[in-house]
Each structure stands twice: as structure tokens, then as C-alpha cells.
Amino acid sequence: MGSRTRRCSSPRSSTEPRDVWHDVRVAELIFYAGTMDCGKSTLALQTDHNHSSRGRSGIVFTRLDRAGESVLSSRLGLEVPAVEVDGDLDIRALVVERLSAGARIDYLICDEAQFYTEEQVDQLSTIVDDLGIDVYAFGIMTDFRTRLFPGSARLVELSDRVQVLQVEALCWCGARAIHNARTVHGEMVVEGSQVLVGDTTASPDAVSYEVLCRTHYRARMTSAVAKSAHMSAQPLPFAQ
């Protein structure tokens, strides 16, 4: 997962210190970001598996997962138990409490991190710096209005690394999807609460979400609308 270097003071003699750079791995806060359907929860599960299978011990956190409370799931059908991050949870205090009780904690998996508060993201950074625990956060960068989630914005500000997931979600037209659209009755809406749980597999009559390319997001052309609309290209505004 990479490493940072740490500068240590190493004496050349008893009276003459010198600074030496050692390539020592230290804990990191890494934010894996993408749109819906890009596989972030699958990667979170895989990351947890990779670390636990090598003898490392971690805690999995999530918030408002599609499968319900206190579970981290992916659309591939995989899931693991998780700690639910409600708005009042002090993540650092929970970690310190478990460490004080004798638990070993090498890493944290934090899925749906876009829903964490700015204060909770600050707590993740102090867990990395003060406790030496790796934190792997996974989340959506922007909401259905193309605005940054507060949790995601704070992660961008504080993370040692921000990794854009390489599995590209696709718009219904086949182009790369970069926007998360909220739909009601199959039509896109751009007003409402920033946090409103839905799913990409929900009934068209319910609140749902769909990933769109920028062109079709701007045109508010969801897959349902596209099926019933005339698909000829709009003419360019050339002067007559």
C-alpha cells in the first residue's frame, strides 16, 4: 500500500547528531473515491480480506449501507459485519477504548465515508498520526447535485493519498459515468436532502440512483427517459 519516510536523529558521535532518513513504513490515511457502481465496497471487502489473511487485525466501519445497519456489503453479494457510524459516534474514542481493553488494531476499513461528518474524518487522521493505525476510506466524491459531500471534501484535504478507482462506471449510453443522479419515477431530480438512501436496483417508482455521463446528466436524460424519448441529437446553435 506504499510507504512514507520518517526522519530519525542518529548520532555520529556522542556530541554530534545528524539527521538520517530511514525508509520506515508508517501508517497512512488513504481515500479511494469514485462514483456509484465503481466497485468501492467490493474493494473495501477485498482490502479487509487481504490484510486479515496476512494476520493483521482491523475494524470495519460503514454508514447507511444498502443492506441495512451494521453491515458492509457489495453488489456482488459479499458482506461482513461492521460498526455503524452514526452522526454521534466518536471513532477515535471507540478505537482507544478497544486498544485499552487489550485489542490489537492494525487497520480500519471505512466504507461509505462520504456520509461521515467532518469531525469524524478528523478523528480518522488522528488515529493514523497518533496511534499508528492504517485507515482505508472508501466513498463517493459528489452527490446528486454534483457537489462534494462534506466527508469526502475533508478526506481530500487530509488524506495522504487519494486514489480514483480504476473500474469505470458506465452511463446507459455506454460512455464513462462521472455523475450520480437521483431519480423519482425514472426522472432526474436536483433538489432535496443531500443524504437520502436509495439504490440503483430499486423500483422506478421509488427514490433511486443512476450514474450518468456529463452530457446526459446536463440533459437530465436518464435511462427511463431515454427509452421514451426521441433520441435524435439536438442541433448545434448555428446562426441561420
Summarize the structure in words.
This protein has 240 residues and is an alpha/beta fold. It has two domains: 23-167, P-loop containing nucleotide triphosphate hydrolases (Rossmann fold, 3-Layer(aba) Sandwich), CATH 3.40.50; 168-227, Wheat Germ Agglutinin (Isolectin 2), domain 1. The protein has six helices and 13 strands. The chain has helices at residues 40-52, 91-100, 118-131, 150-158, 214-218, 223-228, and strands at residues 6-11, 17-22, 29-34, 58-62, 71-73, 79-81, 83-84, 107-110, 134-140, 161-164, 179-184, 187-189, 208-212. The chain has a six-stranded parallel β-sheet with strand order 7-4-8-9-3-10, with helices on both faces. The protein has a three-stranded antiparallel β-sheet with strand order 12-11-13. Strands 1-2 form a two-stranded antiparallel sheet. The longest helix is centred in the middle third of the chain and has 14 residues, at 118-131. Residues 7-14 have low confidence and may be disordered.
Overview in brief:
The chain has helices spanning 40-52, 91-100, 118-131, 150-158, 214-218, 223-228, and strands spanning 6-11, 17-22, 29-34, 58-62, 71-73, 79-81, 83-84, 107-110, 134-140, 161-164, 179-184, 187-189, 208-212.
